[in-house]
Design goal:
Elements: E1 9-12, H1 28-41, E2 45-49, H2 55-63, E3 73-79, H3 91-98, E4 103-109, H4 112-119, H5 123-138, E5 143-149, H6 151-157, H7 159-172, E6 176-181, H8 190-199, E7 205-209, H9 216-225, E8 230-233, H10 247-257, H11 266-269, H12 272-282, E9 300-301, H13 304-312, E10 330-331, H14 339-348, H15 359-374, H16 382-392, E11 401-413, E12 420-432, E13 435-443, H17 446-459, E14 469-477, E15 487-494, E16 499-506, H18 509-527
Parallel strand pairs: 1-2, 1-8, 2-3, 3-4, 4-5, 5-6, 6-7, 7-8, 9-10
Antiparallel strand pairs: 11-12, 12-13, 14-15, 15-16
Helix pairs in contact: 1-2, 1-12, 5-7, 6-7, 9-10, 17-18
């Protein structure tokens, strides 16, 4: 890396621009978990959403203040003031201030077509909107970024006016002028020349590309070569229409191929594959096998000359080492063990005293591969993975034994006879030591009822389960077969200190949910170092 150059700032907009993807819906809990993962990755700025646009984003900005982020700063996103208000009275600018983030990003119009047709105001009035909005925010917020919406289209239509909009933002005090290819239509030959013209203003420049022409990553990298020091994108290229520049491709190019200075450390770049899969899990979408760098097939080889060559020297058919982005080489004819990835995860759990050839680890590895073949997905369900690892090493107490459960959904009519409602009842029979507990509970749905019944049965013995709640769950069909298809249930639980994810898989959705619920309860007991009440606690717990 060039130590004399300032690091390029990586700005992630997965939670705002990425959330506008078709079929993607993040809950507040999802957004908070993703924020923490992006912080661990080393992302400089996480754009959390538009605080004035919906109650979910308002709640996110309230809760994100409680996260203990080590590196990332959170940004609130909005627009310049409205034409019929002042900066001091504009509700959009006020909502940005109420988010209380250290960074605010606002966009304004660069294309005279939008000013005339969409805003229906004079061109000079638009310059005043930009200047006054940026200045108002900069006087009250530590960092203000200005997104020049449709800048490349605007520059082609009227270069001088587009540059004047940037100058207005710079005069207002913007910390960076971000050039946006909002329609995703810029060609490779557009980027260098237009960025160079914008650079004549002498302000730090950023780049924000959409992928409508399939060039978002390429255009982003060209902008960096032309002088951009601020890069915006999303994990997995999530975004409206065809998506945004994919940071899981942009970051490896910058760090490993272009050798640009970044604040991300090599070990953080090595977590890209895990972060990619985690965000997909939170978005309830399947990971793309052929995704560059982080896809399961990115370093997969099948038969013939390729396999023969890579076994002698992987450089023959691999442009980087898979481990540099947290991925792994796969030979599809004879699957490789991936033991190093397993030991990496074990070390993350604080398990670093196990030998590489320990037969328990080899068996665990085989078990994990078999479970993944059956449809388990442990990205986003780290608690389930850790429990399996610790069980293989004899570190998880035998807290309780399930003897059976039952769930009944009933359609009931309220007493006044005016409204029908569905109610779920669940009963659970468990034993803790010599005690047998048979308990029932009512819930708003079968999973909620089962959760209530299980914890009701166990709280008598383990009081700390009382502060645990099920905060979210997702269901995904993972095989063909219609209503008899294999399904995966992922559950997020939380208490006063932590959140954790667990997973279950079955052809029966309730059975899959129960697996995930049991893991959630056991993980809570283990992480609290709760003594088992059946006399079967392993040493040190």
């Amino acid at each position: 890396m060039h130590e004399s150059a300032s690091p390029i700032l990586i700005y992630d907009t997965t939670l705002r621009d990425g959330a506008q993807s078709e079929d993607v819906l993040f809950s507040v809990a999802d957004k908070l978990r993703i924020t923490e993962r992006l912080d661990e990755l080393g992302i400089d700025v996480v754009e959390g959403g538009w605080p004035g646009s919906n109650p979910k984003d308002v709640e996110y900005f309230q809760q994100v203040r409680n996260l203990q982020l080590g590196h990332a700063r959170v940004s609130a996103f909005g627009s310049t003031r409205r034409a019929d208000t002042t900066a001091a009275t504009d509700p959009i600018l006020q909502s940005l201030l109420q988010a209380e983030t250290p960074v605010v990003t606002i966009f304004g119009k660069s294309w005279n077509l939008h000013v005339i047709k969409a805003l229906e105001i004079p061109l000079e009035a638009n310059l005043e909107l930009i200047f006054e909005s940026v200045r108002f925010l900069k006087e009250r917020v530590e960092t203000v970024y200005y997104d020049a919406e449709h800048f490349f289209d605007g520059f082609k239509a009227d270069p001088e006016y587009a540059l004047r909009t940037l100058q207005a933002a710079r005069d207002g005090g913007a910390d960076c002028l971000v050039l946006c290819d909002t329609n995703g239509g810029a060609s490779l030959h557009d980027i260098p020349a237009i960025v160079a013209r914008a650079a004549t203003l002498g302000a730090p420049l950023g780049i924000h590309c959409h992928n409508d022409s399939g060039l978002a990553v390429a255009n982003t990298l060209l902008a960096v070569e032309a002088g951009a020091v601020h890069v915006q994108g999303t994990i997995n290229g999530l975004g409206e229409r065809c998506g945004n520049a994919d940071l899981t491709s942009v970051i490896p190019h910058l760090a490993l191929k272009m050798h640009k200075p970044l604040r991300l450390q090599p070990e953080q770049v090595q977590s890209l594959t895990r972060v990619s899969r985690f965000v997909n899990e939170m978005a309830n979408r399947s990971s793309q096998k052929n995704q560059p760098f982080v896809g399961a097939s990115a370093f997969a080889h099948k038969g013939g000359i390729h396999v023969s060559a890579i076994l002698k020297d992987a450089r023959t058919y691999e442009h980087i080492t898979p481990e540099s982005v947290g991925n792994r080489q796969r030979v599809l004819v004879s699957e490789q063990a991936g033991r190093s990835n397993l030991f990496y995860k074990l070390k993350g759990f604080g398990i670093d005293d196990v030998e590489q050839k320990d037969p328990r680890i080899l068996q665990l590895l085989n078990d994990i591969k078999e479970l993944e073949h059956k449809g388990y997905q442990f990205d986003g369900a780290e608690a389930s993975f850790e429990l399996r690892a610790r069980r293989a090493l004899g570190q998880i107490p035998d807290y309780f034994t399930l003897h059976g459960f039952r769930v009944i959904d009933e359609r009931r009519e309220e007493e006044n006879g005016e409204k029908l409602m569905l109610v779920s009842d669940a009963s659970v029979k468990v034993s803790v030591g010599d005690h047998i507990e048979h308990t029932a509970a009512e819930g708003k749905g079968p999973v909620n009822a089962l959760d209530q019944a299980l914890r009701k049965a166990l709280t008598r013995f383990y009081a700390n389960l009382g502060d645990m709640t099920l905060s979210d769950f997702k269901v995904r069909i993972i095989s063909d077969g219609g209503t008899a298809a294999q399904v995966r249930v992922q559950i997020e639980s939380r208490d006063g200190n932590d959140r954790w994810g667990t997973v279950g898989t079955s052809e029966n959705i309730i059975a899959a949910a129960y697996q995930a619920l049991v893991d959630a309860v056991v993980y809570k007991l283990y992480k609290d170092r709760t003594p088992a009440l059946n006399g079967k606690s392993p040493g040190g717990v």
